[in-house]
Amino acid sequence: MTTSDNQNAEVAVRRTVESWAQAIRDKNVQALLKQYAPDFRSFDIAPPLQTQGAETRGKAMTQWFKNWSGTIDYEITQQVIVAGADAAYSSSLNHVAAKRADDGSAVEWWMRATIGLRKSGGEWLITHEHTSVPFYMDGSYRAAIDLKP
């Protein structure tokens, strides 16, 4: 793969990840599902330990979106993309801010995200997503949502 091919792949991967993030901001499940490969696998913050398949992910995100009123502020920062001819990954620290649907209170947190992608039919699709929030290892097991980069 030439340097130019590598740069083109990185740009295309960045577009896919940005489309994924925009779908989250808009709470648009259909747009989100377009970014996933059919055999998509997720290790998400919320239970269960893993989900498999884009449709399963769509159902989970539909439920999660109901927790928030309006759009979700979802910012990708410190993104690193490594792309080859047909496989790539993106890692980043992401900031999430939203208003709760039940009482309108504002919440925010930082999380880590790693996204694996595969080039299929000329387009980059997300095959793996791993998001996490650190937790305090002081015995409380409390999520460390107060951390900032």
In a nutshell, what does this entry contain?
The protein has helices at 3-26, 29-33, 54-65; strands at residues 36-43, 51-52, 68-83, 87-100, 106-120, 123-132. With 149 residues, it is of the alpha+beta class.
Strand content: 35-45%
What ranges have pLDDT less than 50 throughout 5 or more consecutive residues?
none
How many DSSP H or I helices? 3
Mean pLDDT: 95
Radius of gyration using CA atoms only: 16 Å
Class computed from helices, strands and strand pairing: alpha+beta
How would you characterize the overall build of this protein?
This protein has 149 residues and is an alpha+beta fold. It has a single domain (3-132), classed as Roll (Nuclear Transport Factor 2, Chain: A), CATH 3.10.450.50. It has three helices and six strands; from the N terminus they run ααββαββββ. It has helices spanning 3-26, 29-33, 54-65, and strands spanning 36-43, 51-52, 68-83, 87-100, 106-120, 123-132. It has a six-stranded mixed beta sheet with strand order 2-1-6-5-4-3, with helices on one face. The longest helix has 24 residues, at 3-26. It is globular. The termini are far apart. The model has no long low-confidence stretch (mean pLDDT 95).
